[in-house]
Amino acid sequence: MTRPADRRPDADDPFPAQFARTRRFSLGVPHRFTVSPDGTRVLFLRGTSGSDPVNRLWLYENGTERLLADPLAPDLAETGPPQAAPARPARPGGTSSGVVAYATDASVSVAAFTLAGTLRLVPVRGGPPRLLPTAGPAVDPRPSPDGSLIAYVCGGALRTVRGDGTGDRALAEPEGEHITYGLSDHVSRESVGRARGHWWSPSGDALLVARVDTSRVRRRYLTDPAHPERPPRALPYPAAGTPNADVSLYVVRLSGERVRVRLPAAAGAGHPEGAWTDRAFEYVVAAGWDERGPLVTVQSRDQRSVHVLEVDPETGATTTVHRAHDPAWVALRPGTPLRLPTGALVVPARPGGDTQGLVIGAVRTPPGLQVREVLGAADGRVYFTGSDEPTEIHVWSYRPGDAGPVRLSGVPGVHTAAVGGPAVVLDSRTPDGQTVTVLRSGAEVGRIAVLAEEPVVTPRPPALSLGRRELRSRLYLPSWHRPGDGPLPVLLSPYAGHGMQVVLRARAWWTAVAQWFAEQGFAVLVTDGRGTPGRGEAWEKSVHGDRLTAVLDDQIDALRAVAAARPEQLDTGRVAVRGWSFAGYLAAAAVLRHPEVFHAAVAGAAPADRLLYDTHWEERFLGHPEVLPENYARNSLLDEAASLRRPLMLVHGLADDNVTVAHTLRLSAALLAAGRPHTVLPLPGAGHRIGGRAAAGLLLLERDFLRRSLGG
User: Fold this and answer.
1) Exposed site from 45, 223, 391, 690, fewest CB < 10 Å?
2) Is the pLDDT score of 9 beyond 50?
3) Which domains does the chain carry?
């Protein structure tokens, strides 16, 4: 029998290089679909192969694909004179370059995008992209509904330029250096999920515009120690318990008239009290403008109240049309609120039961269907994703008056969609890979090519439901392991944090990584426990006030359950855990708190000190640190450093602006002060997502560290 140790996988194993080359198998995958209202045209982004990192803009029409914009073409590669970085710089370690985002007019006849800060406009029906002159580096261009104007942000000012390149002018200019118009703030972009900061009116004569003032927000200064000659970059970052950006909204007309939206100051009756209560509406979590006017959603600082507001664009007055309250936090459902042409709202159902539902007008989705995201409405139907089994996500549609929602996706897997008129672009991931199918009136009319490389490892883990909580898990074993070979060292490789599942009936980059580690001689166990999505309000909110105890308990319960069922395959005397971001935090906590179970850990980008993370994300779980300091103390790893008895490797990108390297440095300092040996691996120039050759090297270093730590 040939084992990995005999064939030296570090010398001839192609997977680490493939993993890095394909940017986690993300290259060649079509994404960011836009469907025209008549359903005849589909725009999307994709490279030319599974190793091409340059996104192109494509059109699918009449069963064929056509290239609309190639950033490497001579007419687009010429970007003109050097320009300063945009106001919202890209993060290090991004998965692709080229056309990374675009926006269209209402009929999907023109598309706007930027390259190196230059503004480009491409006619969808034919013709090359045009370079439009701007006042400086352009950010987030968005065509008006009729395509005659392009709104964009430059130097913090919201500007417009005609589609023919004339008439560039400012609509709203910042009053100071810390003010921007038309952009999202850090919390809205990173924790809430609202990336946009300006929205056209349907008539194209005005925009709803976010004004962001970060003057009160504390600054962080990020630098690259590998390049000490470069100045630090200042980043307004509202850490837990500190001031947020001041976000306000304005209706700005092309005539120059401007009206401030009169957002309510605070939640009133019905707001749940708690040990820490802050009723102030500090968060604008959603906004838009449809045929009935602007619609805005605000959330209180303590996240226990959410109000949906209709806005009078003439006066700025608001009317509350929906309220939601929760004693822990009001969960924000992507795609909501949605207002139908009849005026009916699509909003999350009030919490209760084992599933998170949806209310469409006056109709609630049936019990047992967990709604994940609202995709939109077209041809009188509302489209959304949902689960009746946590490991699968399907696309559903509902037409008011029907007996109930109809499932559009068939095979088990993870599905999502983009819609327009009678067309549905169904994006499906299954254990066999990914397909993108174009449906029209329910019938398949074509497919959009997925060019991603096939992983050189083939994950086929059995589906497990472990313990009394029926923890959804997967166990990855080496393809070469046979009965009688003896038990394997165990490697837990979960995410286990809020907002993300990794135990799904679909192939993904993390399933390939888990299988690769299995081929190196580990039994790899992956478990989604309490706090992860897909299993109802109570399941997700069981981590309120304590982000670690229940999560660690579930990982241990899953390990013990599968080991009891397969004692001949798993050696519980050699157990390690690895992870990144929240999973890195969990890995470090595992060896600190449960050395009797876990014998080694690799903790990447671990947010070890919860006080360093941002307001909206951290206060959701732990409250305000000045009012509930015990929550932050309970969830910090720094005070537990002296309990380390097992090998621990800490890994962190020095350019990480999400989980700053200060987390790892503080934990390492605490370990040193306690005299506890550990390993620290700094990654110069790397952000929160590790790319390039470092991604391949890191897999090998992790493997070797775990082998040494577990004894062979």
Assistant:
1) 223
2) no
3) 4-18+454-710 (3.40.50.1820), 31-267+277-448 (2.140.10.30)
